[in-house]
Design brief:
Elements (H helix, E strand, L loop, with lengths): L12 E2 L6 H4 L4 E2 L3 E6 L5 H14 L4 E5 L4 H10 L8 E4 L17 H20 L3 E5 L1 H8 L2 H16 L4 E6 L8 H6 L2 E8 L7 E9 L8 E7 L2 E4 L16 E2 L4 H6 L4 E2 L3 E7 L4 H14 L4 E5 L4 H10 L5 H5 L3 E5 L7 H15 L3 E5 L1 H5 L5 H17 L3 E8 L18 E10 L2 E11 L8 E7 L2 E7 L3 E2 L7 E2 L16
Parallel strand pairs: 3-7, 3-8, 4-5, 4-6, 6-7, 14-18, 14-19, 15-16, 15-17, 17-18
Antiparallel strand pairs: 1-2, 8-9, 9-10, 10-11, 12-13, 19-20, 20-21, 21-22, 23-24
Helix pairs in contact: 4-5, 5-6, 12-14
Length: 503
Amino acid sequence: MPLDATPPKSDPRVATGVPGLDEILGGGLTRDRIYLVEGTPGSGKTTLALQFLLKGRELNESGLYITLSETEAELRAAAASHGWSLEGIDLFELVSEEGLDPDSEQSVLHPSDVELGETTRGVMAQVEKTKPMRVVFDSLSEMRLLAQNPLRHRRQILALKHFFSTRKCTVLLLDDQTSEDGDLQLHSIAHGVVSLERTAQEYGSQRRRMEVVKMRGIKYRGGFHDFELDTGGIRVFERLVAAHHAAVFEEEVVSTGAPRLDELMGGGLSRGTNTLISGPSGVGKTTTAVRCALSALERGEKVAYYLFDEGLPTLLARSKAMGMELQPYLDKGQLELRAVDPAELSPGEFAFLVRDAVERVGVGTVVIDSLNAYMQAMPGQKFLLLQMHELLTYLNQQGVVTLLILAQHGFIGEVHSDIDLSYLSDSILLFRFFEAAGSVRTAISAVKSRTTAHEKIIREIRLTSEGIEIGEALTDFQGVMSGLPSYEGKVAMLGAEAPVANG
């Protein structure tokens, strides 16, 4: 080749067509290799394979779907359910009506010997005929039944691997994992292995997750990644790793919108920190969070509010009754207010929603209301702590002001939480009910702040039609945080006010 000649360009990666999967793989699959996609029936293997071929069609790469387990009509119907057309993709059924004809049977050789050889030759003949760049073989479980023993099965897969490697094909082999002990030999043969899992919940929708078990020559994101299978195909939510998303932001302390609350917290809320608002139900946690969010909106920031506990109309109506109107900010798109059903949303998808709001929309304040309902979406408490740690670290690194609401059990006296997130929190606002002068009142205290010199006193707080009102330090009370105080002085309580809804 002449020195000034330009070598032909070749793209070493193949886009899978599955949103999120290419990011996990660091750009896609290595071209002209054979891959194993395994999962139990219903986990999404066929959908993923169809997306792979449709992406090839979009890139003008010919595709071939070889099926032993589904008919062409079934495949087209499956594609149509997602709004797809398989026009331009070759579909090849290895089992035809002729194979079911009793007259075609023979008795000299064992049927499996003939059928396995015919199956392999049929695959090769179709590939030679269509010369595809992308191939899906569905499924290996049928080949396993024809082979009848692991040695013959492995030899046939090796033969197909060698054949495809000389034909410049990127191949997905689908396996429904119906063998009793699993077939780890396939893992050693394949260039890469993607495993799909489907888990039924006792209540709510089923959960799906994906793991890249193996991928030679590629630095990929390991571990489990939640994914959604719905109309339109599979969408993978890449597992959040906070260390990969460091950002530079201007450090500052912003107001909560309530001057005395700012004083209590040592000036306000610091960017790049999270604040845990903890207390019994009805004590005013949500109202305080809304006041902080409204202050951010008034500064011109964008805010994302994720509501797990109550409906949007209820929150909007209650906030308006307290003089905190949110609807105008919703109308102009400055506020993203989303009611989340934890029974239908996986933790991975929620982390994706938050990340999308921060990186695409540009929100500066995030409110999660509440952690108790979010916890119900988790398979176990340790997973909540691990995933919440990553999410909070990510938000802190992005310079986001994060407010977390945690409801505690009990009202007066002993109060406790299902989980302890105090060590993950940069600041903690603690609310308590207490009894004084024949009425139930509310106290607030900042018990922790890593970035500001907060007040170490307890103040009374009241919800009014003007929002929140914070009184003087309760210096003449002992035991306010326990809910059973004793009065030892003459500190004036906040005056009477028309009752409003608590939150």
